[in-house]
Structure formats: C-alpha cells, structure tokens
Amino acid sequence: MILSRALHWALVGTEWFLWKAAGVPAAQRQLIIRDAMDLPCQETSRHEKVSDATGEAMWDYIVNTLDPVAQNTLLSEENYHYLLTLTGRYTRRCHPLYLGPKAHRKLSQPHAFSGLRVHTDEINEIIQRFKPATLTIAIIMDSMDWFDPNSTAACTQVRALHRALKPKGRVLLRSAGLKPWYVAVFDQLGFSTKRVAARLPGMCVDRVNMYASTWIMTKVDDL
Question: In this model, does residue 7 exceed pLDDT 80?
Fold first, then answer.
C-alpha cells in the first residue's frame, strides 16, 4: 500500500499525514513539491492543481527513495538500516560497524566516551555556548529544511555557525530538496557552498537514500 498511487492522492500526500505519521514538516514538504515541479521531464498538466502536485511529488519522492535501495543493496548482507526497520533487530552478518567485535572491544574501554558531550537543546542555543572560531566541523543534517523561508531563522543559524567555526571550518547538511533555498543564505554570509551528492531519479547515493542532496559549506570570509 505504501506505493499505491490512490493512497498517495487520498492520504500520504496531505500535509497532515506527512507531519503526523512521517515527521515531514510543511516547509520540507514544499521543497519536495518544488523539485517535482522543476524537473524537465514533468508535464505541466500534471501539476495544474496543488493537490495533484503534492500527490505526484510525494509518490515520486518515495519511489526514488525505495526503488534504488531495493535494486542496489541487500538487507541480509549490508543494509542494516532497513533490516532493523523491518525486523526490529540486527544480525551477525548485517549490523553497524560499531557493533562488531573489534569496535566493541575499543568502545568498551574505560573513558572511551570521555570526549563526548550530549546536548538536548536547539542547535542555535548549543552553538552559542561555543567560543568563537573553535569548531572545525558542524553536521546539522536536514534541520534547516524545517525553516520557513519567510522567517529570519535561517539567517540567525548561519550567522551562529559562522561565529563558532574556525576559518575553513565546514558545515555538512542534507536536504529533501536538490537545491534548498537557504543555500543562498550561506552564500551571502561568508560561506562557499558545494553540493557533493544529488539523488536524481533512479540513483542510490547511500544505503538509506532518503535525502535528495548533501552539501558542504566552508567558511571563507569574515562577516
């Protein structure tokens, strides 16, 4: 049923379902819809109505996520991400590296996690606690997909990252959009931007294949 077109038009493509069941916020949903409408292979008539655009966009996004994974990876041997989701467990043949015998011995040593700090606050609040120009790498995943393009949230976060990063420090982020709107914010606020991966239709970029793009933003200028 997850790949049923009728189900997508009636339920899966709706803003309510995407947020309540899949954790996809409205702003991220709009990135997916915009990409679907921008693809040159799409016919304009298929997107005359917002409801049609949403249903088709979400259908394409899920197909482009799952089909290449099924075609290019083996759950029994390597794809422990979906193995855990489907069966609720790992196996001796298929598990993360940190659960292997060698890694387990290393991570079981005293003080193995002494340099690890756990934060349970918003990213901006955490970044503000670091001294200026001390971070080398910040991995923020798809958190900026949640921002409203009409708000100042993206600008605030990019400025905070710029303050905390050393010169040539990098931000790694992932997005449901091929070129999310906030890339321009990084360009304007002292970063060079480079897309290092793009999940085009039919491509399998990693074993989860959930995100449309991966970006590295490098701090190059002072503000």
Answer: no
